[in-house]
Structures are given as structure tokens and as C-alpha cells.
Amino acid sequence: MRKAFLAFAVFVSCAAMSVAFASSTPQNRHSIPQQALDATAPPTTRAQLAAARPVLARHAMVVTAQHLATRVGVDILKQGGNAVDAAVAVGYALAVVHPCCGNIGGGGFMVLHLAKGKTVFLDFREKAPLKATPTIFQDAQGNVVKGRSTHTYLGVGVPGTVMGLNAALKKYGTMSLKQVMAPAIKLARDGFILRQGDVNILHTRSKDFAQYPNVAKIFLNHGKPYQAGDRLVQPQLAHTLELIAKGGTRAFYRGSIARAVVKASENNGGLLSMKDFADYTVQWSKPVQCEYRGFTIMSSPPPSSGGTTICEILQIIKPYPMSRWGYGSVKAIHYLVEAERRAFADRNTYLGDPAFVHNPIAKLLSPAHAAKLRTTIDPDKATPSSQIKGSLGPVEGMHTTQFSIVDPKGNAVSITYTINYLYGLGQIAGNTGFFLNNEMDDFTSKPGVPNSFGLVQGKVNQVEPGKRPLSSMSPSIVLHQGKLFMVTGSPGGSTIISTTLESMLNVIDFGMNMQQSVDAPRVHNQWYPDLVFVEPGLLTDTTREALEKMGYRFKVVRSWGADEAILVNPHTGLLEGANDRRRPAGMAAGF
Ligand code: DON
Predict the structure, then answer these.
(1) Is the shortest distance between the CB of 308 and ligand 1 below 6 Å?
(2) Are 245 and 185 in contact (CB under 8 A)?
(3) Which of 138, 152, 456, 579 is the most exposed place for a label (fewest CB within 10 A)?
(4) Mapping DSSP to helix (H, G, I), strand (E, B) and coil, where does residue 479 land?
(5) What are the distances in angstroms from CA 166 to CA 88, 273, 306?
(6) Which domain holds residue 158?
(7) pLDDT in tens, 396-405
(8) DSSP secondary structure, 9-37, as one string
């Protein structure tokens, strides 16, 4: 690892190299859509990257995308709570202080590693309403109706966050729901002072907020966008959270909160019913697991595609000397992109909710499958995506947020949860005070037609009643020789997978510290569109030229993702916390 770091240090300190800076935020389908972008911080320069240092702590660490939520987590740990107590407190706090993404109106996944050695996975992903059908997003002619899955109540899935957080607390926490929800309720009732990083995100949807009086009343300041220094107070949300703190999961799924959402849905052409809420369940299972250079990756299984796709990519690149080639080198980018292209083709063809479809994970992650895919990679040329299909043959049968916590005992939690777009549907049911998701857009609206993240998916992920849409969210935990090594994950729609993967590779193969790994400019390919997305600063002119000669087409995108990660440095034993600088309102803190 040390040798690799030297190579990386040489790369980043070579300030004289000219960098292919370009900026474009394309809006068409050949782009990473705005939903996945976080243009709230300038790109990372090489000098900044070389100098990037994580926050260090000896006992415990919390990293979230909003500094007040980080404080909540640290306080719970200092009061003697464990990582799950802190995670639930943070989950509710982010719903208040990071309302674009933190939520009680959406869903997500948790990977929990217990200090005793066991690792478990919790799926609290939204489900499609019972009245949903495979063609709800199509017109009578079978054409996908633009915006139906993202801007109407048809896009709302049955929320899972409240049941998920409460189930985690009940099974593995030590504190009461009232205790862990108290900080969130206080932040909602008393309000909090907005920083520039907070208002930058709010401003992305000010125009939408203005359309709905009940949203405008909370998220606009007398009709005007909030500015840094203003106080955001959310009394309706405080009330909703109090109902949950008092009445538990039932209060959300069987009481006035569900009734308010169902009423709003009925009044606006949606499909949600009280039965959808009453029938909602969360699911405990095992994470998807793979080995890479002595590290064990424990990540999210279906209905997330994240863990499987990350592991498939790792299986493909395993024999290549990534570390010798170096971060940002022609060869490392070439083989990484080719592995991504093939793994995303499989993702989009074969993966879906395991309660409805068979996911051929063992086959996708087998060494034989990886070996077969490697033979299709031309060492000198990019493979056009059109030449790649789901590789097992025919099928047989923005916004989001990540937080990572390690407690003094060594328990670790990685959670990614989402309402899909920034502020989800952009609508709030009555006086509930929380944004509803538009997660139904993650389903295949029609096979072959890209969703809003440009993902071209198949029938396996079609809408069905009670089904969970395929996700890319990849909260992950990495172990080294059985010991906790890394807690990582990110928002960013389809780019979540490459962002999370690269946070691991940057440390394991390229010798970066956690902050450098999180800040390092990223690369992403998702099969279709047949483009390689790069953040400014990744490619030198020479590297870009060499790759273009091999057939690559690049799209430089200012930034995406927000990896909030923790590394247990095996050399120092210290925890390295890294808030992604693309989310400047966030913070890593520990003790
Ligand atoms: O579950 C998924 O894959 C998406 N709904 C995540 C959306 C997302 O990350 C948007 N933000 N960047």
C-alpha cells in the first residue's frame, strides 16, 4: 500500500501537468442528470488532493452530509449509545437538517457490522403501491409519459425509513425511540441556522417549492429563497416526529400520518392506500460479500444493485496491477471502465427485487464469469456498449444521503437512504411537514427506455404491486483480516456504484488516506450512455488523448456523489473520518 501511495503522491504533486478542465452540465439523456450532481463545491485540484487530511479520532467517528446531524450522532455516542442508537438519531436528524435527502418519506439500506464479527443488512426500501401495474408510466400507445414517475403522485412508493430506523433500534440499539428522536424534534421545533452549503441545495428547487403553498410556507422565507444565516423552523415536521416518538412505527403506518399521505395521494391521482402502509415490511438479510486483495467487501444485495455490481467489477479487475498502473493512469481507467460497462449491463438486465425475481448473484460473482468477461476486453480499445449485452444470456425466469458511524466498541453502521430526487417529489402531504419520495422512477418505465439516471433497464425491474424498485444505493463495510477497515457509501443515482467502489480502490490500490479517497476526482461508466463521465482533474491532457485514441468519449461533469466515509487505519489504529467536500455543509467528527 505504501508503494502505491508514493505513485499517487507523485501524480498529485505534479502540479505542472496540465489538467483537462471543462465544465458542462448537460441536461439530455446522455448526461448524468442534475439529480445526481452536487455542484455545491468547486472541483478538487491536485494540490488540494495531495494535502487532503481526514479528521482523526481514537474511539468513535460520525460522518454525515450535515454538521448538525454529525453532532447529534457524536452526542449520542458520548452518552453511551452504540452505533445503532447514533445511526437512528442521525437518520431522524438528517430528515430535519438535510431535507433534500435525509428523510422519513423515503427508504434505504443499512449495513451493520457488529464488533463481535457478524454483519447484517437491513432493507427498508420503498415498495410500489398495491394498485401499481407495469405500464403505469406509459400512455395508451405504450409511450413513456415524461415526468409521470418523477413529478406526480404516481411516482411515490410506500415509505420505509421510519420502519427501518425503528426496527434497527429495536433489534440492536440500547436507547429508547424517544431518546434518539429528541435531538431531531428539537432541531425541527427550534429551527437551525442555515449555512451556505445548506442553502445551495435548497435553491436547486426554490421554483418548485413556490408551486405548493404548504411547501412554500416551510421552505421559502416569506416567498423568497432562504439565505445563509437564516433560521429554518419546521413545526409541522416537529409534530410528525413527536407522533412517531410517542406512538412508534404504528403512528406512521396506521395513524394520522399515513391517512394524510393517502388523502393527498387520492386527491392528486396517486395510488397509495391505507393497506399499502399497513402491509409495508422491512427485511433483514445478509450482505452481498466478495474478496479483493485480502479485503472483504460487505455491501448491499438486491433490491440494491450496488453490492453485486461493485463485487462484479472487483472480480473482473482483480488480476490487473491497478496499484502499479496508478490512479488516473490510462490503463487503470481503461480496465475500470470496461469492467463497469460489463457489470452495469448485467445489473440492468438481471437484477430486481428478490421477492419477485431470481437474482443470479452467484453466477455474476463467480471467478469463471469474471474470467469470461476479461477475455472480451481488448487491451488497446474501448468496447462499444452496443457490443455488450447482459452476459448470462436471456433472463430465465438526487436525492440521497450517506452516513457512516463507528462506535467505541467497534460496531459500525453504513446507511444510505433517499427520497430519490433532491426533495423527492417536491411535495408534502398536508401538514405532515416531510417530502414524499419519487422512488417509483427507479423501476423500468418501459424496457429499453432510460430512467432519469439514464439507466436502460429490463423487465426484471418492471413495476409490480408491492415490489421494491431496483436501487443503486451501496452502503458498504470493508473488513481486513476480519477486522473493520472501512465504512463507505454515497448518493448519486447510478454513479453511487462507481463512487463507492472508487472510495475503496483509492485506498486499497492507490494508497490514499480516507479524505483523499473521498475527494479524488471520479470516473463513471454505466454501459449506456456509451460515455465515460469524469470529474475535472482526473485526466491529464495526455491521458485523455491516449484514451480517446482507444475509442473513449468523455463527458466532464463538475461533480457528483457525496461519500461520507470512515477508515480504520491499520498502521495507526486511528479512525479517519472524511466528509465529502462536494457536500460542504457536512462534517466528520469523533473522539
Ligand atoms: O436508489 C437509487 O438508486 C436512487 N433512487 C438514488 C437516488 C440518488 O442517489 C439521487 N441522488 N444523488
Answers:
(1) no
(2) yes
(3) 138
(4) strand
(5) 7, 22, 24
(6) 81-283+404-460
(7) 445 799 999 9
(8) HHHHH-TTS-B--------STTS--GGGB
Percent of the chain at pLDDT above 90? Answer: 86
Looking at the chain, how many residues does it have? Answer: 591
470 with 305: CB under 8 angstroms? yes
Measure 98 CA to ligand 1 centroid, in angstroms. 15
Catalytic residue among 296, 308, 349, 400: 400
pLDDT of residue 448: 85
The reply to whether ligand 1 has any atom less than 6 angstroms from the CB of 492 is yes
Q: The domain spanning residue 17 has which CATH number?
A: 3.60.20.40
Q: Is 135 a catalytic residue?
A: no
The radius of gyration computed from the CA coordinates of the chain, to the nearest angstrom, equals: 22
* 58 within some domain: no
Alpha carbon distances (Å) from 297 to 266, 344, 462, 485: 43, 18, 29, 10
Neighbours of 549 (CB within 10 A): 12
Q: Whose CA is nearest to atom 5 of ligand 1?
A: 420
Cα–Cα distance between 443 and 457 in angstroms, integer? 8
Q: Are residues 274 and 294 in the same domain?
A: no
The reported pTM is 0.92
Whole-angstrom distance, CA of residue 321 vs CA of residue 310: 18
Number of domains in the chain: 2
- State the pLDDT confidence band at 13, using cuts at 50, 70 and 90: very low
The per-residue pLDDT for range 125-171, each reduced to its tens digit, is 999 999 999 999 999 999 999 999 999 999 999 999 999 999 999 99
Cell of 54: 481526514
* Residue 428, strand partner residues: 435
Report which secondary-structure segment, H or E, holds 56. strand 55-57
